[in-house]
Each structure stands twice: as C-alpha cells, then as structure tokens.
Amino acid sequence: MQSWVLTLAFWLHMAATVVWIGGLFFQALILPPVLRRLPERGQVLEALSRRFQPLAWLSLAVLIGTGLTQMAANPNYTGVLSIENSWSRAILAKHLAVGLMVCVGVYQTWVVQPALARMAILEARAPQADHAPLLRRQDRLARLNLALAIAVLAFTAIARTV
C-alpha cells in the first residue's frame, strides 16, 4: 500500500474520531446542564441533534473506510475473523464497542430524534409540558455513547501497544 494512502487514512480517521467523540462529549457533559436552565430545551436539543447527526454518520462512514484501510495494512492482521493474537482481540473488542455505538446512534436517530421534534412542537404550543423523561433518556444515551467511545479509544491504545 502506498504510504500516502495510509497517511491520508490515519489523518482522516483521527479527524473523524475528533468530530464524533467531540460531539458525544459535548452532548453528554456540556449540554445537559445548559439545557436544564432553558425553557425551550426541546427545541434547542432537537436543533443541535439535527445538526450533529449528519456529521456523526459521515464520521462513522469515514471511520469505517479508513479503519479498514489501516487494518489491512497492519502486520498483525491475519484475515477476517482470524483472532490469533492480542492485537486482533483488541480490534475485535473495539469493533464490538463501535457496533454498540452504532446501535445507540440508530436508536437516537430514528426513535429519539423524532420524539425530540414532536417535543419541540409541543413546547412551542404548551411550554409547561413535562418532557423530563425524554430528556433523561437522551442524556442516558449520550453518556452511554460517550462511555463506549472511551472504551473504543482504550481498545485502540491496547491494539497499538501489543
């Protein structure tokens, strides 16, 4: 493999990681305390989610493509589902964590996001409506995804050092 291809793959992979995990960090730790102070929190959360989700899905696509490129170039890679060494076990754990992150993202995109959109409409009509359960669910999902992202980073570090 050409060295410039691998260099580009590493750079894009790191950039996509920063976008994805940075967004998760923001959603899990920065946004919830700010939203608790806003009366129109559903509208704000829905707008932010609508803005971040396309970036997150694009980052995931970039991560998959560049990750496969990097994996194929790694001397520890011995084939698909060949789990013969510590590197391949760490990569398998990493991919399982990413798979869980994707499942959480799918749920957020196709279940929580539409509920947030409905919540934003209801807030505009009836600001006193109680949307705490939906906001708590969104907070829990954001924290879960951040914890999984931290696990992905840990598994990556393990794979790089074995």
How many DSSP helices? Answer: 4
Question: Strand-residue fraction?
Answer: under 5%
Helix content: over 70%
Overall pLDDT, averaged? 90
Low-confidence stretches: none
Number of strands: 0
Distance between the termini: 22 Å
Which structural class matches the secondary elements? mainly alpha
Listing every helix as H and every strand as E from the N terminus to the C terminus, the arrangement reads HHHH
Any idea how many domains?
1
**Main sheet summary:** none
Report Rg.
19 Å
Shape: elongated
Task: Write up this protein.
- This protein has four helices and no strands.
- The protein has one domain (3-161).
- Helix content is 84%, strand content 0%.
- It is an all-alpha fold.
- The model has no long low-confidence stretch (mean pLDDT 90).
Which key terms come to mind for this protein?
single chain; 162 residues
Topology:
Layout lengths: L2 H33 L5 H33 L12 H40 L6 H30 L1
In short:
Helices cover 84% and strands 0% of the residues.
